[in-house]
Amino acid sequence: MGIPVFPPRFDTDLLKPFYEGLEKGELRMSACSTCGEFHWYPPEILHCHPEAKIDWRTISPEGVIYSFTTVTRSLLPGDHRDEVPFTVILVESDDVPNARIPSIFMAREGQEAECGMRVRLSPVQAGEHILPAFEAID
Questions:
Q1: Which domain holds residue 57?
Q2: For labelling, which of 9, 44, 73, 102 has a CA lying 20 to 30 Å from the CA of 18?
Q3: Residues 130, 121: Cα–Cα separation, whole Å
Q4: Does residue 80 fall inside a structural domain?
């Protein structure tokens, strides 16, 4: 399996705390500073309390695969043939079951992703950046 080496776009600093957490091996999710409701993808304005700030909280690095797809042909600009195939998964953390975080599945030899599979955060270096990635829990 490959790893897509294409840096995430940061038009704003909205996701910066998420990626800083990955660098420390933590899974972080945005929450309302007033009521504590988790939000993924983090909005610029919270619908629950528009005046509130976003807090970034460390959540369980374990969860389950909600859905997945295997990319066999990259549609990214440039030459990415050596990076495919890779499997993109949507992970629900044990702490926030209805939020689904897009990630990369780090499979062992002969292993394939399955819906409902238990996984643990395992961030991966991809070029000059870190991607959210998960591996199966034995």
A1: 16-136
A2: 73
A3: 12
A4: yes
